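Per reviewer request, we include the raw input and output of the structure prediction for the construct analysed in the revised manuscript.
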Amino acid sequence: MGVKYIKSTHKRSLSFAALKRKIIKSFHDNTIILDECARINTRRIYYLAIIAIPLRILDIFLLSFKKHYDTLVLKVWSQGIVASHIILLLLMIAFFLITLRLKDRTEPNTTMFVLQYIVVVVIMASGITIVTFDQLVTTNITPFILACIISGAIFLIRPLVSFVIYLTSYISYYYFIALYITDQQILLSNRVNGITVIGIGFLLSIIMWHYNYTNITQKRRIEIQRKQLEQLAYYDPLTGLPNRRFLEELLKREYSLMQRHGHETVIIILDIDNFKSINDTYGHPVGDDVLRQLADLLRNSVRESDTVSRFGGEEFIILMPKTSLEGGYVFAERLRKIIMEERFTVGSTTLQITSSFGVSSMRDIYNQTIDDYYSLADKALYLAKKGGKNRVEKANGSH
């Protein structure tokens, strides 16, 4: 019996601890999604304003239709309600004009962050104000209920801020409805009902925040995983450069663009001379570091429109769109000299390397298999190696 009691108590303790962690997490300042929530809230304010503006105009028209009231109480109620709706209409128009410029922004700014809280406060304040005047003619608190539900269900407000807004709203509601209620039982009933309404609104706010927090973070994890898979599929893990698969797709697209627009594109293949001797003499880790440093050098030497990829082993390919064969040759010759003069330092070892280059134009390709895309440049590279290495050779355009 004692063991069962201890186990039961332990389970309840664990359940309470888990619930406590969830509550703390809900109230935690989840800054990682605040930017996304600000963008979502801005778009929701825009659409809310589109709906609210004509409804406010209709409300004002209906409330102003009867111009004469028999008693002072009805006159005060009418003027107060109409004034409240007019002020709310003007604010909604202002919110619409502001969000019209902001709703398509991809990066939130200060205005978006501040506006979302202002709108929630305005909605809650309007609900309290209208209910206060309504107590002159009715005991219902429908506008306050709507304000609490709209604020909780539509806007993504972090729980701690939401708690402050709802608590402040209830305190205001508690005192303001007493202005026009003389019956203490009705006043007590409305105050108690107000607690329930505030609780429902706050609960909705937490649910919406938690749901969107989970949704946004899951989407981000999926996007990170997608990028990681793309990195594995299309990029070389050693150098971080695009790999052969990426290059194959890029070459096909570039060939189509050449046919459509008529420009010339150059392919440069470069191969490190005597790279095997580096691995044999200093070891593969040193060879890998040389490849990484060379990749950085190539990446920093080309134009933004050019693409450097690692084709395999110590071989790299540079794709240069809108470049003539002669222009590609001049660039390759300059790059050859840069590599030859560069010092590659790995720990206490400093190395100098040379490279051979083959340059060809994609205009000379007559078929569209992947081998055809670089076969001419590969033949030119072979001539450079055969001619003594540390050279640049151009393809002659024949198969």
